[in-house]
């Protein structure tokens, strides 16, 4: 069996040895003027040490900007949220003369860093938009920092000050949503948490707890269940809550898909919604207004958030000084027919 030849030195090796970005190596290789002398000498030294020989065709291509933005997203079961992210990001790209490339990923994924590296380098994207929860995956964020690719994160759990971040007031919105139920006389209010990998999940749960505290209602861990932002987990959680010796008169689900699971479970048990049980969701996806009864929920400005994030990212790529919005985007509680005053027990 023939022995493998020596590993080919790549531009990534040169960038790592010199401690600079791939783009900087490309500028030096293409003899561009906008590189500091000290940086140029570091790169040239790394090229000599590694015996790097750039491909002529690749060198010609690398001197040109791709004007491409990547959208790396979780391939979620609920498409409505993702559709708004796609449309908002695309609007920003089209308005600024950029093209958008998509990279769907399934989570969890042990090869996620390799997949993102392959996408980012082969597609030659200049920047990447990361909707939740990708902005909180350490393997992804660390890789993009290593590659010096600018990022705009939508609703991250831990916003990075050096990157562009946009979010909405999930906590205040859930607080207002719970207050709708409290004002209708509900006191035993169940809560179904969202996926633990999403930053918004903890924020929404905290908003629910603040509403209880504000109105002097004791928090009960027995009325809380873990969900995963999908129909099945919502249905399972509802089943467990409704099996309690003292079941809740209302349930707050952290998204509309899980709320749909709650409605399904209630109907299977012959319960009337909202006569026997009030149900609320979050996101105001298309399903919310098509369920029966139509779902009380929270409407997020997802398209506007995505458009803002992508727009700021492109402005940064074009050399403009940008900063993330000082305030979160406002959400809106949408009242429909899935909620009603608590049924009298007398």
N- to C-terminal separation? 87 Å
Q: Taking Cα atoms only, what radius of gyration do you get, to the nearest Å?
A: 25 Å
Proportion in β-strands? 5-15%
Taken from the alpha-carbon principal axes, the silhouette is elongated
Global structural class = alpha/beta
Total number of helices: 13
Instruction: Flag low-confidence runs.
Output: 1-5, 56-62
Average pLDDT for all residues: 88
- Please give the oligomerization state of what you see: single chain
Helix content: 40-55%
How would you characterize the largest beta sheet? 5 strands, parallel
Record the strand order, biggest sheet.
2-1-3-4-5
SSE run: HHHHEHEHEHEEHEHEHEHEHEHE
Number of strands: 11
Could you describe the 3D structure shown?
It is a single chain. The protein has 346 residues and is an alpha/beta fold. The chain is built from 13 helices and eleven strands. The strands form three sheets. A five-stranded parallel beta sheet has the order 2-1-3-4-5, with helices on both faces. A four-stranded parallel beta sheet has the order 7-6-8-9, with helices on both faces. It has a two-stranded antiparallel ribbon with strand order 10-11. Strand 3, helix 7 (138-146) and strand 4 form a beta-alpha-beta unit. Helix 10 crosses helix 11 (256-268). The longest helix has 17 residues, at 79-95. Residues 1-5 and 56-62 have low confidence and may be disordered.
